[in-house]
Structures are given as C-alpha cells and as structure tokens.
Specification:
Helix 2 packs across helix 3, helix 6 packs across helix 8 and helix 6 packs across helix 10. By secondary structure, the chain is an alpha/beta fold. It is built from 21 helices and 13 strands. 53% of the residues lie in helices and 11% in strands. The longest helix is centred in the middle third of the chain and has 25 residues. The model has no long low-confidence stretch (mean pLDDT 93). The strands form 4 sheets. The chain has a 4-stranded antiparallel β-sheet with strand order 1-2-4-3. It is flat, with a radius of gyration of 28 Å. Among the domains are: 90 residues, Arginyl tRNA synthetase N-terminal domain (Gyrase A, domain 2); 88 residues, no CATH class; 105 residues, no CATH class. The chain binds arginine. Arginine binds next to helix 12.
C-alpha cells in the first residue's frame, strides 16, 4: 500500500512538472510514512512542504494542488490536509481486505518483489585457530537473517564464510599438532576437541621452548611455500576446527553450508598480484620496509597520515591485503551488486580504508556497493564485555547449553505434566530461539546486555512471547479444523479488525526496510506489534463464537494470515515455530 501511494505521488509530481508548476529538473525523494494516530489516516507524506521552495507556493495551497492532481485510486478512501501541509491518506477497507486476501494465497504474502540483485553476505567468518565464542554469535545470526530475508525477496544471495584460516599463528598450532602426533597417534584429535585448550597449550610450548618456536616458524614458511606435508597437517587442523563451527551452526539453525566457505587462504595466489597492481598505479609507499598505501581521507587524531599496510617487511601479507583480493573476487567473479559485511563495529576503520582503496584502485566496479553493517558488543550484566565468572571467554557451546537448560525449566513450569521427550524438543527450540531473538531484536549498532532472565521472559519483545503468541493463533485452527475456508472472504468492520488488517498489510514494507540496512530488529519490532494487534483483536472480536457465519469465516482468515505472517517473519529471522509450548 505504501508503494502504491508512493507511485501515485510520483505520477502527481510528474504532472505538476508538465504543468510548469515545479521545475522539470527538480528531483525529490518522496517519503510516505505510517501515521501514529489512526485519526490522521493510515499514511502521510510531507511532499507539499518539500516542494514549497521549488513551486514558490504556500505548503497548504500546494498540498491542495497535489490532491487535485492525484490519480484516481480505488485503494484510497479519503485524502486530507493536516497541520502545516501534511497530506493524510485513508486506505479503503475493501482495498485493504483484498490485499490481505491476495497475501493469504501467495507464497511471498503478496509482497512485490524488487529487481533481482546479486548480493554477497559476508558473515560469521570466525578465525579457525580458536573456538567460536560469543563475539561470533552476533555476526552469525544477524548475517544469517539478512541473507534469508534477501533470498525471500528473490535476490541471488551468495553467502561467504570468510574464515581466518591463514596466518603466522598456524605455525605454532601445526608444530604442536606434530609434537602430539609423535607422542601418540590419536592424541592430536582428542586434544583438538577443545580448541581453546589446544591453542593455549601450543602457545605455552612456543613461549617455553626455543626449539619449538623455531619449528613453528619453519612450518609457517613451509606452509606458505606449499609444502605438501605441511599443507596436509594444516588441512586436518582446519577441518576439525570447521567441524566445531558447523556443529554450532547446526544447533543455531544457521543456513550456512560448507560450500559457503571461502577463507582467507583461498586468496593467497592473488596477493602478490594485489601488490603489483597497487604498485603499477603508483599507490604504494615504503614505510620501515613495509609496503603501505596512504590515502588522504585517513589521518590519525594528530593529523599524521594513516596507512593501510599491504605487505610487511618480512614479506608477509595482512588482513587488509586479503580483503582487497576478496573484494575483487566478489566484483569480478561473483559480479555482486552489493557486498554486505556483518563484522564488529570495532573494525569500522579497517573497512572504510579498504573499501576506499578498492574503489581508487578500480579493483571493484564503480556500481558495486560495499557496506560494513557493523554491530556493537555483547556485554554481561555488569555492562562489561561478556566473560565467564573467572574472566575467560564464553564459549558459544556453553552458552547455548545453558539457554536450553533454562528453557527446560521454563517450559516444565508451564506444563508440569508434559512428557520428557516433548519437553526436551520444545525446550531446545525455545532456548535457541531466545538467544537468537534477544540479539536480533536489538539495534545491531548498539552494545547490549546479555541476560538469560530477560530473553526467557514471556513478557515484552522476546522469543517466548512470540512463540507463544504463534501457538495461540495456531490453536484456533485446531479447534476449527473442520471448517471449510475455501469460499471465505475477509471483511473489515470492527476497529480491531481494521487495525490488525493494517498491520498485516505492512509485512512487505517491513521486510524491505529490514534488508535495506541489514536490520533484523525492524522485523522483530513489527512481529511484536503484530502479535499485540492480534491479541487486541482476539479480545474484542470473538472468532468461533462470532455473530454471523461470514464474520466467523472472515475472522478465521485474519487469524490464518496472522499465523502465516508470524511464521514467515520468524523464519526470516532463522527462528523455528512450535505448535505447542
Ligand atoms: N575473521 C575476522 C574476525 O574474526 C572477521 C572477518 C570478516 N570478514 C572480512 N571480509 N574481513 O575478526
């Protein structure tokens, strides 16, 4: 509906230009917003105010002129001028009802699909030398939800797990693996079950033994020069490490597959070429033996030039070098229109620098949009970065385990008689959903406080609230299983029916808003409001005990579309629904 009003206004603007009221070269972004108060209609625009200067007219007079030039539309019941010159649109109830009827039948819920783009989503991307920790949670689930929503809108989504599988730390890890192997064939495998411990032990050996350190350095060189034995050792290590990650993805219900891995190592062959190309363009400078690029846009606080380091004095390449190679792969080979990076906001400067450099060096097409969609830190209840009681990093596995344990208590307290097997499967869904939803529902750019209590509450914008709301709607159908809805029609009469109908009609614009900036919290807020609108409707409007048969069927359809929308919305967030909880 919003896009319909937008297009009516675009046509109006064109006709005002033809009439010479607005200069032909005037461009304006036409904004249409939902009104807060229904007495002001459903949608409003400030277009008249935006055009006053260009037209040399008073805003209210211009608003009237816009209304006079508005094309006929059966969707609009009434148009009004309000305040200094806002134009308010009242949507026709029948038009709204037929829009909802279409949504019921359509797998995309009636959403108009945008023009298809190829969109690379770089997310999760952990460093393989260590186990995944809570810091990786945000990237993994926010990125996954964005990928799902973009795919739902028909885009060609290419997931990229840009894992950190390369670097000097691997020398140390491989040396330790080799040492364990020499002592006991299977030991390495066992010890790697605890990657974190393995890393610490390797580091300890590195610090205590000069021989070990020498071997570690030697292994780095051999690995980089493509030595076969070394390469095999490295592959084995990565494989085990990746198994850890993919176990977690599976528990989280994340849609990434092994085929989506394109780690740092996969760009190795292009790195010397990156250096050569930057050099040819005259962009490289020397700084203490290292090859760097200075860009005028980037200075330190003291005004000193801030370089991007491309190659260290010892020949080693850096994180930035790999990202440059990855960007050109994404442009030249994947032909991406947009590349979205879901990475901690603390890497903002890195991305600004490499994006800018990639454009300057023509490594990527001019049109390709590079977007760092950063996120804040997940803090503990003390407001400091989330740690275990003893101050260590919280492993993701442990966090998920605890969420499920707590969810089990929660579900049991609501259903003391439920059998264990059902309890367990419900608790698994609720526990994981709670962790994910708590994260997704916050504005990604802000830090947030991780609290099991808050996320497992039935009150407020939480997973348990929404999952429960869904089971309630689904429950209506269990009781109405034998009612034939094939000839039913939605009719909006009661205020609460209209409010619910209007909310339901906003699903499409919500998903579009969510993907524009990769903000799942926009969808969460919408689903929460939708569940609220359904509650108010259900309280005011009896469904199975409605006054007439038509009314009953219409209300059942509204319930059906609510269930469908909640389920689809949760699916885009990567959250499973339950029929009972
Ligand atoms: N491995 C990095 C880290 O753990 C994140 C990589 C993000 N993606 C990228 N293309 N730089 O911090």
């Amino acid at each position: 509906m919003k896009s319909h009003i937008q297009s009516l206004l675009e046509q109006t603007l064109d006709s005002l230009k033809q009439q010479g009221i607005i200069p032909a070269d005037f461009t304006a972004r036409i904004q249409v917003d939902r009104t807060k108060d229904k007495s002001h209609g459903d949608l409003a625009t400030n277009l008249a105010m935006m055009l006053t200067k260009a037209a040399g007219m008073k805003p209210r007079d211009l608003a009237q002129l816009i209304i006079d030039n508005l094309p006929e539309s059966s969707h609009v019941a009434k148009v009004e001028i309000a305040g200094p010159g806002f134009i308010n649109f009242f949507i026709d109830d029948n038009a709204l009802a037929s829009q909802l009827q279409v949504a019921l039948e359509d797998e995309h819920l009636g959403i108009q699909l945008p023009q298809q783009q190829t969109i690379v989503v770089d997310y999760s991307s952990p460093n393989l030398a260590k186990e995944m920790h809570v810091g990786h949670l945000r990237s993994t689930i926010i990125g996954d939800s964005a990928a799902r929503a973009l795919e739902f809108l028909g885009h060609n989504v290419i997931r990229q797990n840009h894992v950190g599988d390369w670097g000097t730390q691997f020398g140390m890890l491989l040396a330790y693996m080799e040492e364990l192997r020499a002592q006991h064939q299977d030991k390495a495998h066992l010890e790697l079950a605890d990657l974190e411990g393995f890393y610490r032990a390797a580091k300890l050996r590195f610090d205590e033994s000069a021989d070990f350190a020498t071997r570690a350095r030697q292994l780095v060189v051999e690995l980089q020069s493509g030595d076969e034995y070394c390469h095999k050792l490295w592959q084995e290590f990565n494989n085990i490490s990746l198994n850890h990650c993919y176990d977690i993805y599976q528990r989280l219900g994340v849609s990434m597959t092994r085929a989506d891995i394109r780690g740092e190592s996969s760009y190795n062959d292009d790195l010397p070429q990156v250096v050569t190309d930057l050099d040819k363009l005259g962009l490289l400078s020397e700084s203490n033996g290292a090859k760097v690029v200075f860009q005028n846009e980037f200075k330190t606080k003291e005004g000193e030039p801030l370089p991007v380091i491309i190659q260290k004095a010892d020949g080693g390449y850096l994180y930035a070098t790999t990202d440059l190679a990855a960007m050109r792969y994404r442009s030249n080979i994947l032909h991406a229109d947009r590349v979205l990076y879901f990475v901690d906001l603390r890497q903002a400067l890195h991305f600004q620098q490499v994006f800018n450099l990639a454009k300057t060096a023509n490594f990527v097409s001019k049109e390709m949009s590079l977007e760092h969609l950063g996120f804040g830190t997940m803090n503990g209840e003390d407001g400091r970065p989330f740690k275990t009681r003893s101050g260590g990093v919280v492993k993701l596995v442990d966090l998920l385990d605890e969420a499920v344990v707590r969810a089990t208590e929660l579900v049991r307290s609501k259903n003391p008689d439920m059998d264990e097997a059902e309890l367990e499967s419900i608790a698994k869904v609720v526990g994981i959903a709670s962790v994910k939803y708590a994260d997704l529902s916050k504005n990604r750019a802000s830090d947030y406080i991780f609290s099991f209590e808050q996320m497992l509450s039935f009150e407020g914008n939480t997973a348990p609230y929404l999952l429960y709301a869904y089971t309630r709607v689904a429950g209506i159908f269990k009781r109405a299983a034998d009612i034939d809805l094939s000839n039913a029609k939605i009719v909006l009469e009661h205020d609460k029916e209209k409010e619910l109908g209007s909310k339901l009609a906003q699903f499409g614009e919500t998903v579009n808003r969510m993907v524009a900036k990769g903000q799942p919290h926009v969808l969460c807020a919408y689903l929460f409001e939708l569940a609220g609108a359904f509650s108010s409707f259900y309280e005011a409007c009896p469904v199975l005990a409605a006054e007439t048969e038509e009314q009953k069927l219409s209300r059942l359809l509204l319930a059906k579309l609510t269930a469908k929308t909640l389920k689809q919305g949760l699916t885009l967030l990567g959250i499973e629904t339950l029929e009972r909880m």
